[in-house]
Structures are given as structure tokens and as C-alpha cells.
């Protein structure tokens, strides 16, 4: 069904505080079994929300186009597209930004939108009832024991030594009980305050379930100034209490691991015959209690005749060598054969497209995330392997990464 362009409508009735507005919008979406996403961009204060008035409209096959003419919405893509984990694009039938809290962007002539307006106009006395989050219909994934993960790392190192792959990123899932009275929306708020530099999100959709995350990794971004950006993020160490990030010393293993990711991005630019990119780094960056090495890449789209660069790079980059490996196909094949579980939306990508305005899109790699289950959460983390990887260290690294998102379960 085609829909008219959203218009700006006033929030009906008295405008509650933004957290309460967010809860009401989510309540409507979840009770109507509609897909919905809420997010907070790195370095910003305000939450945004995108709601689709039809679950079917969110099912998509292709990665989104990142041009100004493309539909506005929220992309939620799995690591590997499949029937179990469909690629989703939530059209922005309703868009709300806490920066202008009294406004809703929707088509008031649409029957779903008028139902929403009627719902928001009613008094909300049942605000303490738990939100009916979407649940995945997939079984809980296999969670590797320490021994199994050691074996996966050893197999990965052997594959590197035998020349099958240059780098591979192994990962695992872990189950954790939900604390009594756990409220995913409050947890989302806690993630926003704990990790001001992360892209914090909660996505809930039929078929995909509910995912919460605080990721440090930009996949592809086109900003308000028409600048395209991506980054090579890899290498991990704990941020020692009181230590200054720029004093961090990196081992050869991490330097090489990150350099491979940066080289892969350069090879994508080359494939597109684009030479006018700016490269900055690598430098040490903070992500929660962790440090990573990061190289930033930027292209001013006003200076190069490349309007589809965002779309093209998205298709070349996903899954990047920071979550799959190199060469890409060989690494993905290795993971399919040996990883032993379904990553689902972990290490896929997510983020707003043409929101808050046409021509502005921000997609992130879905890292430091969890999937919400009725009484537990499934957490995910991975580590880039090189020929020098040690199983015990890699296990510890996954434990550290799990604790970024795990912090909201304590
Ligand atoms: C795969 C993950 O992180 C990637 C991003 C930064 C550093 C990484 C690393 O040091 O291995 C990973 O490539 C994860 O957090 O699950």
C-alpha cells in the first residue's frame, strides 16, 4: 500500500515528559504488533523513534539506498540474510524526535496514524504494565562453553596458518537471566547515560524479536554537510582505571588486525575508482570500558561526482572485516562451517535512513548488543583472530565485550 508523505502533526493533548512520550509510542506499536525502533545518536542527547504502521511493509530484500530520494526509515539487517532473520527496513510512517517533542511526523489521513493519535490523546493510567515486546520465534542459539570457544579459536588460527583466510572474527552468544523487574525501556535509558559516545538502540519487530545495543562502530554515514564517513575499528584492550587512552600501547597483533580492516575499506574505494578520500588515524578511541584502534575515512560528496557512494559502499562493506574477516567470502564460509550458532542480527547493521531529513543517514554495525527473551537475555561478542591469537585471551576479550551490554543486567 502506498502512503502519502508524512506531515507534521501536533502531539494530541497535553505533552508529557519525553521518556513518557517514548513509552506511549512504544506501547501503541507493541500492542498493535507493529515494528518500532528508538535510538540515540553518539554525542547527542535526544532520542528518536520510527514506527511502521504495517509489519509487512518492513520486510525488505535489499540493503537500503542511501540517496536523498530513497524512502525514510530505520534499517535493521542481520549478519546473514535468511528466512529466519529477515532483512528489515521500517518505513517511517511515524517519526518522533525528542528535540521537538510536541511534533509527530505522520499522515493524519492514514487510519493507523489516526488510531495512534486517538491512543495518545487518551489518559494513560496503566503505564506501569510491562511493555509487550516482540519475541523472536527462533530457538535460543547455542552458547559455546569456554572449551568450545578455545577450539573455535584454534581452528581459526589453523585456517589462517594454512592460508585459507588472512583474518577471521569468531564470536559466541551467552545467556544471562533478566534481573527481577527488568524494564527494557529503562535499560535503554541507562545505556544512553552510560555510553554517551555509542549509538544506543532498541529495535522490536515481528520476526526479529527485540534487540538492545550500544555500538561504537559506524558502518556508513552521510551527514548534514554531505560528508560520507566510514571507519576501520578493531583491536581491543581494557581501559585501565585512571589511564589515559592516548597512552595505550598496542601489540603487533592488534595493529595488524586493525590495519587489515583499514586496507579492506581502501580496497572498496579502489573498486569504485574513488581516490578523493581523507584518511585519519589509526588512533585510540574509548568505547565504554574498552579501547579500540580506529581509522576514519571521509569523502565530501559535494566535491566528488558520486551521489550513490553511501549505497555502493554499504553493499561492499557489509559484513566488514571487523566482524567477518578477510578475504570476505572465505571468512564467511569458515564461520558458517565452524562457529556453530546463528548470529541473527548481531554484527548485522542498523540505523536511520533519510532521518531526520532527506540525505542524512547513519548506519552502525550491531555490536555490544543483546536479544531480549521472556526471562533471559542473549548477549553476543566476537574477536578478530590473527595468526598470533591465544584462545584464553580471546575468551577474556569476549567476556569484556559482553560486559558492555551486560552492565544493564546487573
Ligand atoms: C566483533 C566485535 O568487535 C569488533 C569491533 C572492534 C574490535 C574488535 C576486535 O578487537 O576484535 C572487533 O573487530 C564485537 O564487539 O563483538
Could you characterize what this model shows?
- With 410 residues, the protein is α+β, with helices and mostly antiparallel strands.
- It has two domains: 7-121, no CATH class; 146-409, Anthranilate synthase, CATH 3.60.120.10.
- Helices cover 26% and strands 29% of the residues.
- It has eight helices and 19 strands.
- It has helices at 18-31, 111-121, 146-161, 184-194, 252-271, 309-317, 328-338, 391-406, and strands at 7-10, 36-40, 47-51, 73-77, 88-91, 94-97, 103-106, 167-177, 199-205, 209-215, 218-222, 227-238, 278-287, 290-300, 325-326, 349-353, 361-365, 369-372, 376-385.
- The strands form three sheets. Strands 6-3-2-9-10-18-19-8-15 form a nine-stranded antiparallel sheet, with helices on both faces. The protein has an eight-stranded antiparallel sheet with strand order 5-4-16-17-11-12-14-13.
- A hairpin with a 3-residue loop joins strand 18 (369-372) and strand 19 (376-385).
- Helix 3 (146-161) packs across helix 8 (391-406).
- The longest helix has 20 residues, at 252-271.
- The chain is globular and about 65 Å long.
- The model has no long low-confidence stretch (mean pLDDT 95).
- The ligand C=C(O[C@H]1C=CC=C(C(=O)O)[C@@H]1O)C(=O)O binds next to strand 8, strand 12 and strand 19.
Amino acid at each position: 500500500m502506498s502512503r502519502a508523505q508524512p506531515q507534521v502533526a501536533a502531539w494530541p493533548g497535553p505533552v508529557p515528559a519525553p521518556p513518557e512520550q517514548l513509552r506511549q509510542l512504544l506501547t501503541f506499536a507493541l500492542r498493535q504488533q507493529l515494528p518500532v525502533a528508538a535510538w540515540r545518536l553518539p554525542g547527542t542527547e535526544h532520542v528518536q523513534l520510527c514506527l511502521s504502521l504495517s509489519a509487512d511493509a518492513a520486510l525488505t530484500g535489499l540493503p537500503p539506498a542511501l540517496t536523498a530520494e530513497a524512502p525514510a526509515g530505520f534499517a535493521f539487517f542481520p549478519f546473514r540474510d535468511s528466512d529466519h532473520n529477515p532483512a528489515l527496513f521500517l518505513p517511517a510512517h511515524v517519526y518522533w524526535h525528542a528535540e521537538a517533542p510536541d511534533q509527530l511526523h505522520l499522515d493524519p489521513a492514514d487510519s493507523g496514524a489516526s488510531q495512534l493519535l486517538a491512543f495518545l490523546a487518551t489518559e494513560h493510567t496503566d503505564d506501569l504494565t510491562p511493555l509487550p515486546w516482540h519475541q523472536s520465534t527462533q530457538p535460543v542459539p547455542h552458547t559455546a562453553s569456554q572449551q568450545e570457544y578455545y577450539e573455535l579459536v584454534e581452528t581459526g588460527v589453523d585456517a589462517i596458518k594454512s592460508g585459507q583466510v588472512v583474518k577471521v572474527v569468531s564470536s559466541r552468544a551467552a545467556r544471562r537471566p533478566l534481573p527481577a523487574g527488568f524494564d527494557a525501556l529503562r535499560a535503554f535509558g541507562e545505556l544512553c547515560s552510560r555510553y554517551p559516545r555509542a549509538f544506543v538502540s532498541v529495535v522490536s519487530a515481528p520476526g526479529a524479536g527485540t534487540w538492545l545495543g550500544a555500538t561504537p562502530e559506524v558502518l556508513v554515514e552521510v551527514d548534514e554537510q554531505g560528508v560520507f564517513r566510514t571507519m576501520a575499528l578493531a583491536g581491543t584492550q581494557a581501559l585501565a582505571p585512571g589511564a589515559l587512552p592516548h597512552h595505550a600501547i598496542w601489540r603487533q597483533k592488534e595493529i595488524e588486525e586493525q590495519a587489515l580492516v583499514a586496507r579492506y575499506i581502501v580496497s572498496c574505494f579502489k573498486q569504485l575508482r574513488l581516490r578523493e578520500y581523507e584518511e585519519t588515524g589509526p588512533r585510540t578511541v574509548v568505547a565504554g570500558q574498552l579501547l579500540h584502534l580506529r581509522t576514519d575515512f571521509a569523502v565530501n560528496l559535494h566535491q566528488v561526482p558520486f551521489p550513490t557512494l553511501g549505497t555502493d559502499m554499504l553493499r561492499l562493506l557489509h559484513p566488514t572485516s571487523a566482524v567477518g574477516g578477510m578475504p570476505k567470502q572465505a571468512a564467511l564460509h569458515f564461520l558458517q562451517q565452524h562457529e556453530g550458532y546463528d548470529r541473527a542480527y548481531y554484527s548485522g547493521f542498523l540505523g536511520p535512513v533519510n532521518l531526520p531529513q532527506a540525505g542524512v543517514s547513519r548506519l552502525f554495525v550491531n555490536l555490544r548488543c543483546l536479544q531480549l527473551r521472556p526471562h533471559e537475555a542473549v548477549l553476543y561478542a566476537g574477536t578478530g583472530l590473527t595468526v598470533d591469537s591465544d584462545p584464553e585471551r580471546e575468551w577474556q576479550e569476549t567476556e569484556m565485550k559482553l560486559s558492555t551490554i551486560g552492565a544493564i543486567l546487573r
